[in-house]
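Bit of a strange request maybe. I'm writing a small parser for structure token strings and I need a real example to test against, not something I typed by hand. Could someone generate the tokens for this chain?
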Amino acid sequence: MITKKTIFIIPGFRQRPSQKAYQKLAKMLKKEKYHPILVKIPWNATTVAENTEFFLKAYKKIVRKKKYILGFSYGAMIAFHASTKVRTSGIILCSLSPYFKEDNPASLLCCAELAKKIKTKQIHLLYGTRETKSLIRRTTFAFAKIVSKSKRLTPVRKTEHNIGDKNYLYQIHQISRGLH
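Reply from user aminoacidic:
Good idea to test on real output. This should exercise your parser:
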């Protein structure tokens, strides 16, 4: 079976693609005719920008017309930042971490500025309704600042900060079916 859609999956901070949640996610996306690429971030880089550059090297090696990026937590920050540097068919930002300049003055990344630079056709932001208020606030703020007619914000009911939660996986599955 030849797939025409590639989806890069960037795990959360210090998480690995081999973890059960990411394996389950990749299997689910494969059934929806995606070619999932689980990105192993070394986590020895100290900034989101450095980790983004690491990711972009892997991203640029794959030549496909339709490329999507899915990131969880800190991985969502990498996906968000990467989507300002390369054109993608879509991004799925799951539980976007609250570590931007607006959250921490020491950060070099401004969420509001990055939101204006996204080069992506379809944008989906998700958060668990039982996550921290700062994370929910960051995700909804980013959503408000993104200028796109094709953006969606999805609160995942009864869910904490866990991409492996069945409710989270269900929402990602529904979104993956609607990407074009």
